[in-house]
Structures are given as structure tokens and as C-alpha cells.
Write a structure and sequence with these properties.
Strand content: 25-35%
Number of strands: 13
Radius of gyration: 20 Å
Distance between the termini: 46 Å
Number of helices: 11
Helix content: 25-40%
Number of domains: 2
CATH topology of the largest domain: D-Maltodextrin-Binding Protein, domain 2
């Protein structure tokens, strides 16, 4: 009896702490709208054309395919990499499709799909920084690397460039001052780490930036979509969508179209 009572208390506690928006599928079907969280300045992933206002990129194309599968239309909600878990839990979007790095801290606040990209590391510095020309230059004590203040990201950065000086940053929502890119642009840091997808984006859309590649591939991160915490049925639907896109070749075809074929997860 005591064991049953304990299980009942655990179940009640779980229900009490369940997300308020754990029925995304019902909401999408009833409204005919798939609300997609994006960052609109990520070249190759989700970029808004300043002249036309139109969105384009790999995850925009994938979101349209997902919406079509759901017999819905995609509606885009602007967010950032700090706030998207809150936007998901509050129901402002059903899914975040914006090249998100999978981290343990983020996984405490949102559920991640199966990864669709797996990426190696690159470094971004200012084009005018003549001191940094090679990966050996990046991995030196006099090089100041800006890293988002997350224990696992700091740990990974120290593994990748053990000799560089790491400067932890705590980014704030809608603030550019605390981003690694802003620190490098302002000259307060020399360099920051990115994945292959982001490196392509900086090559395309940021004339101030220069990409530095390591002499061999260095694993950095997996990239996935995020959904509200605890919405298992919706997460399963998203994973099925990724699996079908992989099987029918559309995932690779879209990645190739946007120059990201080297990052595609094939398993």
C-alpha cells in the first residue's frame, strides 16, 4: 500500500509539473497553423531578405515540408537562442527550427528531435585580424576566445583549443552585446567557435568575418529541432518526419541545395 501511495504521489507530481502546452498536434490540426520559432538572420538556415522580406534557408524549406505534411501553413515566430525554450513552453511556437546545438542545459527546458546535422568545429575572427591566420594561431594563450557561458560549451571549447584563453559570456535576450560574434566585431575578443553550418553562413552573409578551418575535422556538436518539453506525441511526429526525409532523400537534397551536405546525419 505504501508503494502504491508513493507511486500515486509521483504521478500527481508529474502531472502538476507537466507543460501547459503538451498537445501541439491537436492545436496544429485545429488551427491549421504550424508555429515555427526561428532566428531570421541565420544565412543558409533562416534568413529574411531585407529587400523582399521573404524568408529562405534550409530550415525554412524543412518547416514548409513539415507544415505540408500536417496539412497546415507555416507561421514564423522570431526568437533567439536564449528564449526559444520559454517560447515553446508558453505555446508561442510548436517547434524551433533554427540550427540549434543540442546541449544538456537546453534539454532540461525543451525536448530535442533526432539530430539531422552533425558538425565539426570552425573558428570565426574579424577579417582585419592579421594575427590569426591558422588554427595554430587560434590555439595559443594570447588568443582570446569568446564562448557562451554554458558548462558543456566551455568544456568543449577547452578540449578543442586547450591553449587559447577562454572568455565566458552570458547572453541576454535581444541583446547583441553579449554574443560571441559581437565581442569579436567590437575587438573585445579575437575569435569564437562555430559549426560548419554557421561557418557557411558567415562566409555568405558577413563581410567583416573570416573563417579559420582546423587541419583535420574536430567534432563539435549535433543539431536538432526542439519541441515543448513533455509533448511525446508531437516529438514522435517530428522524428518520423526527419526519418522519412532522410529515407526519401529530401533531407540530403535540401542540404546540398544550401551547401550543407557535409553536415547531414545519415543514421
Amino acid at each position: 500500500m505504501r508503494a502504491l501511495a508513493a507511486l500515486a504521489l509521483i504521478a500527481a507530481s508529474s502531472l502538476a509539473h507537466a507543460p501547459a502546452h503538451a498537445a501541439s498536434l491537436d492545436d496544429i490540426r485545429q488551427s491549421g497553423v504550424l508555429k515555427v520559432c526561428i532566428v531570421p538572420n541565420y544565412a543558409g538556415i533562416s534568413l529574411r531578405d531585407p529587400r523582399t522580406g521573404q524568408l529562405g534557408g534550409f530550415d525554412i524549406d524543412m518547416s514548409k515540408r513539415l507544415a505540408a505534411q500536417m496539412r497546415a501553413r507555416a507561421q514564423y515566430v522570431e526568437t533567439d537562442y536564449v528564449a526559444f525554450p520559454e517560447d515553446l513552453s508558453a505555446g508561442r511556437c510548436h517547434i524551433a527550427m533554427m540550427g540549434i546545438w543540442v546541449t544538456r542545459s537546453r534539454a532540461q527546458r525543451a525536448d530535442f528531435s533526432q539530430p539531422y546535422f552533425s558538425s565539426d568545429a570552425f573558428a570565426i575572427t574579424a577579417r582585419g585580424n592579421r594575427r590569426l591566420q591558422s588554427w595554430d594561431d587560434v590555439n595559443r594563450p594570447q588568443t582570446l576566445m569568446a564562448v557562451v557561458n554554458s558548462p558543456e560549451l566551455l568544456f568543449r571549447a577547452r578540449q578543442i583549443v586547450p591553449n587559447a584563453t577562454i572568455a565566458p559570456l552570458t547572453p541576454l535576450r535581444q541583446s547583441g552585446r553579449e554574443s560571441p560574434a559581437a565581442e569579436v566585431m567590437a575587438g573585445r575578443a579575437d575569435v569564437f567557435l562555430v559549426d560548419r553550418v554557421m561557418a557557411k553562413g558567415y562566409e555568405r552573409g558577413h563581410t567583416w568575418a573570416r573563417v579559420i578551418s582546423p587541419p583535420q575535422r574536430i567534432a563539435l556538436t549535433e543539431i536538432a529541432y526542439a519541441v515543448p518539453k513533455g509533448d511525446a506525441e508531437w516529438l514522435s511526429t517530428v522524428n518520423d518526419f526527419i526519418a522519412r526525409s532522410r529515407e526519401d532523400g529530401s533531407l540530403l537534397a535540401l542540404a546540398r541545395q544550401h551547401g550543407f551536405e557535409a553536415s547531414v546525419r545519415t543514421d
